[in-house]
Design goal:
Keywords: ATP-binding, Nucleotide-binding, Transport. This protein folds into 2 domains: about 1-35 and about 135-215, no CATH class; about 40-125 and about 215-303, Rossmann fold, CATH 3.40.50.300. Helix content is about 40%, strand content about 20%. By secondary structure, the chain is of the alpha/beta class. It has helices spanning about 15, 20-35, 90-95, 120-125, 140-150, 155-160, 165-185, 200-215, 230-245, 255-265, 280-285, 290-295, and strands at about 50-60, 60-75, 75-80, 105-110, 110, 125-130, 220, 250-255, 265-270, 275-280. The protein binds adenosine-5'-triphosphate. Adenosine-5'-triphosphate (ATP) binds near residues 84, 85 and 88.
């Protein structure tokens, strides 16, 4: 990938490009507010948001997760790494309700997610992106994000069909917030383009915007840097930090060690479905069990 990273001026809607520096600062403050309306900006790493408690998951004869436990603090960027087949995506799938654990429990803000369905888990505040981009190809970038804001709407189907005032207000607010999100992730200049026509890097950012549209407490990113060149990876790292600084908590699966080491506060390492390490990037990098798990993997290559 060579031409997909937004330059500083790229990704901005035309009217923002024409603004003075002061107007832009004011505008971006409003964008930040619109992107995280209910969050305290700049929340410090704090109390426990998510607990993965003794979770096991069996696929037939394969124990894909074996009594895995870790937690995630509010405002933290946590990396989940491990060699291929270690159980990272399975762990995401358990957290987001795709699979139910064979044993153990996932708790969000102390509350077991139990038998909640996927959409209910989204409503409780967990959103994700996918290893293989999943967008509505024929919809515009803006429409893709508006769909995400729908998860928060309170109008009933009857209310929508009867075009009640709340329905219109929510529609309008949804579009405004979606536009702010496109700007936040740096792709507002292509808001009206169909998703399938966007450059690859824009599609990845669009997935993130759509996930943020559900106003998650926890954003789970599954290999967001896959297929990116080094400059694009730098751009992505800045975006992940910006997302955290806006009050979100981030769980990141990523194969690229430079990205993982550069952006996370803490890292959990899985191998063959078991947790083998949990600590700061500096600690994990020196851990003999982690080094052994990764032996033979090139520095900049797959984790
Ligand atoms: N639906 C499934 N049915 C059976 N086995 C599965 C299923 N999903 C995953 N597995 C197996 O579970 C193990 C963990 O897979 P998982 O995809 O979670 O690993 P991963 O760490 O995300 O790997 P990668 O880095 O390659 O994406 C693997 O052995 C995989 O083959």
């Amino acid at each position: 990938m060579s031409d997909t990273r937004p330059e500083p001026e790229e990704g901005l809607a035309a009217e923002v490009r024409d603004m003075t520096e002061e107007e832009r600062a004011e505008h971006f403050a409003q964008v930040t507010e619109a992107v995280a309306p209910d969050r305290e900006i700049g929340v410090p790493v704090g109390d426990t948001l998510l607990e993965v408690a003794d979770v096991s998951l069996r696929f037939g004869g394969l124990l894909a997760l074996d009594s895995v436990s870790f937690d995630l603090k509010r405002g933290e960027i946590l990396g989940l790494i491990g060699p291929n087949g270690a159980g990272k995506t399975t762990c995401f799938n358990v957290i987001t309700g795709v699979y139910r654990p064979t044993a153990g429990e996932v708790r969000l803000e102390g509350r077991g997610l139990g038998r909640l369905k996927r959409h209910a888990i989204t409503r409780h505040g967990i959103a994700r992106t996918f290893q293989n981009i999943r967008l509505f190809d024929e919809m515009t970038a803006l429409e893709n994000v508006v769909v995400g804001t729908d998860a928060r709407h309170r109008t009933s189907v009857v209310g929508a069909l009867c075009r009640l005032p709340r329905h219109w207000r929510e529609e309008r607010e949804g579009v405004e917030r979606a536009m702010a999100l496109l700007e936040f992730v740096g792709i507002a200049d292509r808001a009206a383009d169909r998703a399938k026509n966007l450059p690859y890097g824009y599609q990845r950012r669009l997935e993130i915007a759509r996930a943020l549209a559900t106003e998650p407490k926890l954003l789970c990113l599954d290999e967001p840097a896959a297929g990116f060149n080094p400059a694009e990876k730098d751009g992505l790292m800045s975006l992940i930090r910006k997302i955290r600084d806006d009050g979100y908590t981030v769980l990141l699966i990523e194969h690229d060690m430079r990205v993982v080491m550069g952006v996370t506060d803490r890292i959990v390492v899985l191998e063959f479905g078991k947790k083998i390490a949990d600590g700061t990037p500096a600690h994990v990098r020196e851990d003999p069990a982690v080094i052994a798990a990764y032996l033979g993997v090139p520095d900049d290559g797959a984790a």
